[in-house]
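User: I'm designing a mutation panel for Excisionase family DNA-binding protein and want to avoid disrupting the core. Could you give me a predicted structure to guide residue selection? Please restate the sequence first so the numbering is unambiguous.

Assistant: Good idea. Sequence first, for numbering, then the predicted structure tokens:
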Amino acid sequence: MTDRLLTVGQAAELLGTSERFPRRLIAERRIAFVKVGRHVRIPERALEEFVDAHTVQPITTRRRFAAVA
């Protein structure tokens, strides 16, 4: 097992959000997590996959605007 397990606070810090956001992701089952007794841990890889899945790529084609008369 090489994947680090992060606390909710550490996950929030990596995402640049408050702790409420990762807790909501866990409650809505939108991200993988591990229960260790009463504690919840988020695999670092799960955060990376979440960010990758929700990353929007920029449009690379240039739009040409018609001249308005």
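For picking mutation sites, this is relevant: The CA atoms of residues 24 and 68 lie 48 Å apart. The radius of gyration is 18 Å.
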